[in-house]
Specification:
This protein has about 110 residues and is mainly β. It folds into 2 domains: about 1-45, N-terminal domain of TfIIb (Single Sheet), CATH 2.20.25; about 45-110, SH3 Domains (SH3 type barrels). Helix content is about 10%, strand content about 30%. Strands 1-2-3 form a 3-stranded antiparallel sheet. Strand 2 (about 20-25) and strand 3 (about 30) form a beta hairpin. The longest helix is centred in the N-terminal third of the chain and has 11 residues, at about 30-40.
Length: about 110
């Protein structure tokens, strides 16, 4: 049997009890099917309003964002076309006219 880490504390000390799993460290109980559903839900990238973003979407920046190495910030209301989703903290990769290629956080944009 493969070890399933606890989704709450990531402990490897888990055991199966009938149809659900239990963590011996934090006593969290879950069914393995719940873990799959939670993983799929966290793979989605959401904008500031909770709309799901996908590759190729256009977004609008909702607040002025300072850009490292640039003399001026990225202004609120700037439209960014054809975004690409990536893993990590800055989960949007894009090209912005006047600034070039950069990464943005999805919490600072809204779907256009």
């Amino acid at each position: 049997m493969s070890i399933i880490n606890c989704p709450k504390c990531n402990s490897e000390f888990t055991y199966q009890d009938q149809d659900h799993m239990t963590c011996s460290q934090c006593f969290h109980e879950w069914t393995p099917s719940e873990e799959i559903i939670e993983t799929e839900a966290t793979d989605k990238v959401l904008d500031s309003n909770g709309n799901e973003l996908v590759n190729g979407d256009s977004v609008i920046v909702i607040k002025d964002l300072p850009v490292k190495g640039a003399p001026k910030p990225l202004k609120a209301g700037t439209k960014v076309k054809n975004i690409r989703l990536t893993d990590g903290d800055h989960n949007i990769s894009c090209k912005i006219d006047g600034f070039g290629a950069m990464n943005l956080k999805s919490e600072f944009v809204k779907k256009a």
